[in-house]
């Protein structure tokens, strides 16, 4: 009997994340009993992954797929560039799929790079002293009447009330390549800082406003306060809110800065003036032309990184490699300018090994990527 009869819908629900716990358990048992089931799932999953973003998804004929798998399963297949076996490749893909479907909260992640002083998250105190966060856990500092606590990859600031002193002290959290970190500010606003980013903020908010300065990328879930607007300043734009969730990407080495609104409303200020954003809208400021653009977007590619997933939706390879370079602390070299404009769509866990991600890019774009000595050459 064909073990894949009548399970096409189940596999697709599994991939979409809508399968019940019982259905997920049923599939896992099937994978455990039948090695060839894994091959069919892999083929289905890869087709789904590509079609989800390119609108080229076509319904798979499970019977034909099964016969094709039986023919090919005994043949050795190796990737030309990375020389990975299909078994190893599939094991990684299954891990990626399970990550999406278990509906668990993703922890703060660290890429697979060596632990050196240069890639440690650092806290700069108001005195100028730098502290390696990894070496301090629990309640370890008190500045401006604010208790600073570092625990479970979360840096928290707690005050007993509004600080009444005249002097405002500032801290700076520096997140290097290959890392991300979470911080709860003194007003309970939550911020997730992406790789190669820094946030400067007061240890206690005073007066009639709440202001922080961002370099790089951060996701903000601002605590509502009608009396004190919250402002995020970058070198080129300024975002003002009362209480909402949004993502700000303001890297100096990218051609544009972006504000993507998840919920609520925000005002974005630039040299072009004031612009209001509504949910699912994105404000883009081009650093070269100084032009702005406001448009409706699918927010997932711009916010999924906060849950440990990298999502690309028709993204130019140049932008894809910029994000990968920061997370994996790797250099990318394009052998021609045309390659930078090739579009890539895909999604995978941020903790995945870089060679596997490069193999997915190679498969779906037909470009070649050669990884050697922490440098990827694209041709």
Give a brief description:
The chain is α+β, with helices and mostly antiparallel strands and 379 residues long. It has helices spanning 8-16, 21-33, 35-54, 62-72, 86-101, 300-303, 317-328, 354-365; strands at residues 122-124, 130-132, 138-143, 146-151, 154-159, 170-175, 181-184, 190-193, 197-202, 210-221, 230-233, 238-241, 245-250, 256-263, 266-270, 273-277, 281-286, 292-296, 309-316, 331-334, 343-349, 369-372, 375-378. Keywords: Membrane, Transmembrane, Transmembrane helix.
Helix content: 25-40%
Q: What CATH architecture label of the largest domain applies? A: Sandwich
Q: Report the total helices.
A: 8
Summarize model confidence as the mean pLDDT: 79
Beta-strand share of residues? 25-35%
- Indicate the radius of gyration in whole angstroms: 23 Å
Number of domains: 3
Transmembrane segments: 80-101
Domain Protein FecR C-terminal: 310-378
Organism: Candidatus Odoribacter faecigallinarum
Keywords: Membrane, Transmembrane, Transmembrane helix
């Amino acid at each position: 009997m064909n073990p894949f009869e009548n399970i096409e819908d189940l596999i697709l629900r599994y991939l979409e994340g809508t399968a019940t716990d019982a259905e997920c358990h049923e599939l896992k048992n099937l994978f455990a009993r039948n090695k060839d089931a894994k091959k069919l799932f892999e083929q289905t999953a890869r087709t789904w992954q590509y079609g989800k973003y390119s609108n080229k998804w076509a319904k798979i004929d499970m019977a034909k797929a099964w016969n094709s798998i039986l023919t090919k399963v005994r043949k050795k297949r190796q990737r030309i560039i990375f020389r990975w076996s299909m078994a190893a490749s599939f094991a990684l893909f299954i891990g990626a799929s399970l990550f999406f479907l278990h509906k668990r909260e993703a922890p703060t992640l660290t890429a697979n790079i060596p632990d050196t002083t240069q890639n440690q998250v650092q806290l700069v105190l108001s005195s100028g002293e730098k502290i390696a966060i990894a070496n301090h856990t629990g309640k370890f500092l008190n500045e401006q009447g604010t208790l600073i606590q570092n625990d479970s990859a979360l840096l928290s600031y707690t005050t007993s009330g509004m600080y009444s002193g005249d002097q405002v002290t500032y801290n700076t959290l520096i997140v290097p390549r290959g890392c991300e970190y979470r911080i709860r500010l003194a007003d309970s606003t939550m911020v997730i800082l992406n790789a190669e980013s820094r946030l400067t903020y007061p240890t206690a908010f005073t007066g009639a406003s709440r202001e922080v300065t961002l370099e790089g990328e951060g996701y903000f879930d601002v605590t509502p306060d009608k009396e004190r607007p919250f402002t995020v300043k970058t070198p080129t734009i300024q975002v003002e809110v009362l209480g909402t969730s949004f993502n700000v990407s303001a890297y100096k080495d990218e051609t544009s800065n972006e504000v993507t609104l998840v919920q609520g409303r925000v005002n974005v200020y630039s040299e072009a003036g004031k612009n209001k954003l509504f949910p699912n809208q994105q404000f883009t400021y081009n650093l070269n032309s100084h032009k702005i653009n406001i448009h409706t977007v699918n927010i997932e590619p711009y916010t999924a990184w906060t849950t440990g997933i990298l999502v690309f939706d028709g993204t130019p390879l140049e932008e894809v490699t910029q994000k990968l370079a920061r997370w994996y602390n790797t250099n990318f070299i394009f052998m021609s300018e045309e390659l930078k404009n090739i579009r890539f769509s895909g999604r995978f866990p941020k903790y995945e090994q870089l060679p596997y991600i490069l193999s997915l890019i190679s498969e779906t774009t037909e470009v070649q990527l050669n990884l050697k000595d922490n440098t990827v050459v694209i041709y």
